[in-house]
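Researcher: I need the complex structure. Ligand is adenosine-5'-triphosphate. Inputs:
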Amino acid sequence: MATPVRGCRIPQRNTGGNCGQAVDEPSGSAAMTTTAALELIGLRTEFRIGGAWYPAVRDLSLRLERNETLALVGESGCGKSVTALSVMGLVQPPFGRVAAGSILLDGMELAGASEKALETIRGDRMAMIFQEPMTSLNPVMTVGDQVAESLMIHRGLSRGEALERARALFEEVKIPSPAARLREYPHQFSGGMRQRVMIAMALACEPAVLLADEPTTALDVTIQAQVLGLLADLRERHGMAVLFITHNLGVVAQIADRVAVMYAGEIVEQGPVDVIFADPRHPYTRALFAAIPRLDQAEQELSAIGGRVPPLDQMPEGCRFAPRCPLAQAGCELPQPLVALAATHAARCHVTTAAVMHA
Ligand SMILES: Nc1ncnc2c1ncn2[C@@H]1O[C@H](COP(=O)(O)OP(=O)(O)OP(=O)(O)O)[C@@H](O)[C@H]1O
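Model: Output:
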């Protein structure tokens, strides 16, 4: 029987020969010896509730390579946004804190970095786009000036140079009549066009890492498909690494190379998209699949996942999904390590990984 490696802070490099072993960080990439575009190691982010600190993200490790899209998937309240906000340095005292772990941007440690240092990196080497662009756009400033602003700050361009670059960016994200639209205000754009403005703004300084938090959720399906296509195209062209946050597995299939499924602050399963779709191992991943409608099945029973993600101050011991899990049994009350099922696939469930654990 393989010996689980518990509490190990340094990720074990997964070279493919460790099936059945507990791992901190399984990854599908071949570039395991190179520096990742973004690497999280043992990330723990906490919020203060009633005078005590509780983790919203716990012992989370993942690698994101250049020119790769990793989808972070899970229900509302699983910790997806908190993960991205932690990377951006936007979880701050007195209400929240990154309590432990490393956030490495191209090898550079961001955990514990000063606000001044983070300001020079945000919008430059890493950028984030959100579900609702209106919350990020300034309603009383033209969109052209908003895109130009980051180029003036981070690249030292003059306003004229920055506006010319903004025009080129609008063209790149396929905003029609880009020169004219630069002079308009956010309310003059449709939802899909506003998201393109946000993408142009995020791309302005050619970030190495793009964090996309449900960027297409508020759009209708046709516009959603167009924006997803655009993001895939831009990622390819700019060689960016994209962390794509979504609760929608259909979107994952369209855009991602790899998937990390999150539940209650932990990654419960991780692997390449085709592997996760063909052979989901964690009961939570399976439940997410059972809850999506499929066009290839005439008769189908959709099963909503009963219950809800527990609040931070009421997390169960051991497997956090156990209270909602149809396979829960003795042993689930114990801490569950992430077990490697193959070189690139791992799950955190002693029931469905038992075969490899005991091999
Ligand atoms: N500022 C905060 N103070 C206290 N708790 C918070 C705060 N922000 C997030 N949380 C809690 O952290 C947990 C994870 O939230 P998070 O927003 O990351 O979930 P999510 O998976 O992104 O969900 P959604 O898709 O709804 O945004 C939740 O329990 C949430 O209530």
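Model: Summary of the prediction. Confidence is low (pLDDT under 50) at residues 1-17, 26-31.
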